[in-house]
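Help needed: design a sequence for this.
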């Protein structure tokens, strides 16, 4: 008797369930199909960093920064002069969580089919074996619905090797060298 009741219940369930045996619509991937190789050198790290802007990949972007939870070392960003006064978000320490939030908000404002253009010029790297100091002038163009906003300045990145022997950005110093908007302005504006 128990087997008959169980059979009836299972049969009723399978016939009344919501399209149990129908195929569903395929979901769009949440990550880019771009190739981001492991950052086994500072050059690969910087290439991945630039590409993450171009293809708007927040996971690849976050992967460029030093993040070892059991380490006393933490990623930090130092804004350009005047940015602390203009953007309250810089009153506290800017770490990886703030970096990812900024980037996600930034890419959400860029129209579909458009990409952010990031270029470095006058770059220089000083290698200390387990770390590299990378300096460069930068230009970032962010397309929005009605206009393209440009940010220019100079940066200094300290790159270090993490516990998996991959290069990561450990510190980032933004430098204002003109009256133009800087990366700090971009981070402050797009953070919210």
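Sure. Designed sequence:
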């Amino acid at each position: 008797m128990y087997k008959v009741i169980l059979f009836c219940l299972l049969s009723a369930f399978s016939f009344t369930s919501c399209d149990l045996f129908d195929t569903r619509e395929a979901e769009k991937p949440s990550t880019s199909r771009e190739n981001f190789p492991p950052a086994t050198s500072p050059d690969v790290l910087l290439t991945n960093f630039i590409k993450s802007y171009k293809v708007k990949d927040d996971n690849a972007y976050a992967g460029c920064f030093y993040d070892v939870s059991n380490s006393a070392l933490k990623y930090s960003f130092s804004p350009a002069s005047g940015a602390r006064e203009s953007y309250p978000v810089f009153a506290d320490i800017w770490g990886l969580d703030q970096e990812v939030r900024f980037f996600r908000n930034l890419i959400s404002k860029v129209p579909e089919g458009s990409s952010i253009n990031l270029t470095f010029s006058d770059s220089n790297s000083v290698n200390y074996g387990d770390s590299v100091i990378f300096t460069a002038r930068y230009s970032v163009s962010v397309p929005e619905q009605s206009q393209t906003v440009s940010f220019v300045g100079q940066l200094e990145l300290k790159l270090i090797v993490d516990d998996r022997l991959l290069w990561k950005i450990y510190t980032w110093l933004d430098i204002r060298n003109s009256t133009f908007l800087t990366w700090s302005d971009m981070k402050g504006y797009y953070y919210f």
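Strands lie at 76-78, 117-127, 131-143, 148-161, 167-175.
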